[in-house]
Every structure is written in structure tokens, then in C-alpha cells.
């Protein structure tokens, strides 16, 4: 596997992706972990995605604040990893969109069984990167003020069973950070509408590393 630099963003909420395209010029892969729109659909998502130049490969899922038809925009652009995988040499990126059901009834919600069914078993012998909007339950990245842990049990179980090298998520704005679950590096870059993002390095023979940054 060749070394890979990943630019990871999440929670754009309808803002321009132009700055992400600029930041990703020196990256090998741009990961978008959901909430591309702010309660928008396919048209809004395509408008936001227009800013991506195509110079850097992109993998994306939609979030709970995206209507599920945003999946069509991601598929049209050829960047969706919702319920599927994409290979980049020895690195395979797989993912699932949305977030667990909540009292708020946001449009991109799934129950845990639906999330579990959408998570694709990765191929053997590859470096696996998992991209989801929701964080794994019971980590430092899923703690919401006044609500506690609100992450996904299905995503946590998948990580423990499949042991991806890296998990990129978003959803909980206040829980931006870096954590580990067993051997998996967990990264919530924080909301991109506040200028937050993460740079992640995959280097052969070494654990992944990540740095949180802000424009």
C-alpha cells in the first residue's frame, strides 16, 4: 500500500464546498461524512457538490439532516459509499449514511437494524476505511450535551468485528475529536461550516494518524 493523505470533513449544512476542494488539492482522497445540506434534497446537494473540481477522488455519505434523496446526488457524482465500497489501490472505503432514530425525526434517520444491514463486509487483506455520519456508540465522539452517548450500536459492533484501520464520522458537532476503539482510529473532524476539518495519514506498516485543523 502506498501512503495516503486523507482530508476529512463533515457537517457542511449547505455551505460551499469550494474551500474543501482547495484544501484537498494536496490530498489523495476527500472524505465527506454527511450533512451536506441543511434539510435539503438532491437539488441542494448537487448545487453544493458543484464546487468539487474532480482533481481529488471523493467518497461521501449523507447525514441525518439530508433527505435520503441526497443519495441520488452522490450516486450521480459517482462518490457514494452508502451501503457499498470503493477501492483505491490497497485501501477500501466503505460506509453508511444517516444516524440512528431519534426523538427529533430528522429525515436521514435509520433504526439500528437498518444500519446494520447496510454495512458491507470488507474484503480480506485490504486496509479498510469506514465512513459514516453517525459515530460509534460509547466513544468520546458521540457525547451530546444533556443527552450523553447518542452514537450507533450497529457501527460500534461493525468496528469491533471488522477492525477497520480508520473510522471517519461526524454528526455530534460538540464531540469533534480523535479516539480509538480497539485498534481502530476514530476521527470526528467537527463541523465544516465552522471551518473544521481533519488531515489523516495512512502509512504502510504504521497506525493511521490524524490532526484536527480549522480554516
Q: Which structural class best describes the helix and strand composition?
A: alpha/beta
Determine the fraction of residues in helical runs and give it as a percent range.
10-25%
Q: Strand sequence of the main sheet, in spatial order? A: 4-5-8-11-13-12
**Which CATH C-level class is it?**
Alpha Beta
Strand content: 25-35%
CATH hierarchy: architecture: 4-Layer Sandwich
Using DSSP, what is the number of strands? 15
Q: What order do the helices and strands follow?
A: EHEHEHEEEEHEEEHEEEEE
Number of domains: 1
What profile does the largest beta sheet have? 6 strands, mixed
Written description of the protein model:
By secondary structure, the chain is α/β, with parallel strands linked by helices. Helix content is about 20%, strand content about 30%. The chain contains five helices and 15 strands. The chain has helices spanning about 20-25, 40-50, 70-75, 110-120, 155-160, and strands at about 5-10, 30-35, 60, 85-90, 90-95, 100, 110, 125-130, 145, 150, 165-170, 175-180, 185-190, 195-200, 210-215. The strands form four sheets. Strands 4-5-8-11-13-12 form a six-stranded mixed sheet, with helices on one face. Helix 4 (about 110-120) packs parallel to helix 5 (about 155-160). The relative contact order is 0.18. The model has no long low-confidence stretch (mean pLDDT about 95).
Amino acid at each position: 500500500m502506498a501512503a495516503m493523505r486523507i482530508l476529512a470533513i463533515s457537517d457542511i449544512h449547505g455551505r460551499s464546498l469550494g474551500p474543501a476542494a482547495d484544501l484537498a488539492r494536496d490530498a489523495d482522497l476527500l472524505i465527506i461524512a454527511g450533512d451536506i445540506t441543511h434539510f435539503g434534497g438532491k437539488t441542494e446537494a448537487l448545487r453544493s457538490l458543484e464546487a468539487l473540481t474532480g482533481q481529488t477522488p471523493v467518497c461521501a455519505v449523507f447525514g441525518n439532516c439530508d433527505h435520503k434523496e441526497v443519495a441520488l446526488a452522490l450516486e450521480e457524482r459517482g462518490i457514494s459509499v452508502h451501503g457499498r465500497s470503493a477501492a483505491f489501490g490497497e485501501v477500501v472505503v466503505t460506509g453508511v449514511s444517516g444516524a440512528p432514530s431519534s426523538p427529533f425525526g430528522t429525515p436521514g434517520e435509520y433504526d439500528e437494524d437498518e444500519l446494520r444491514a447496510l454495512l458491507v463486509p470488507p474484503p480480506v487483506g485490504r486496509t479498510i476505511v469506514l465512513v459514516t455520519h453517525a459515530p460509534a456508540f460509547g466513544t468520546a465522539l458521540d457525547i451530546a450535551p444533556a443527552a450523553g452517548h447518542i452514537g450507533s450500536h450497529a457501527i460500534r459492533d461493525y468496528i469491533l468485528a471488522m477492525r477497520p484501520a480508520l473510522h471517519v464520522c461526524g454528526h455530534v458537532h460538540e464531540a469533534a475529536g480523535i479516539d480509538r476503539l480497539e485498534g481502530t482510529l476514530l476521527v470526528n473532524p467537527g463541523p465544516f461550516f465552522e471551518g473544521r476539518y481533519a488531515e489523516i495519514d495512512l502509512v504502510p506498516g504504521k497506525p493511521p494518524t490524524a490532526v484536527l485543523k480549522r480554516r
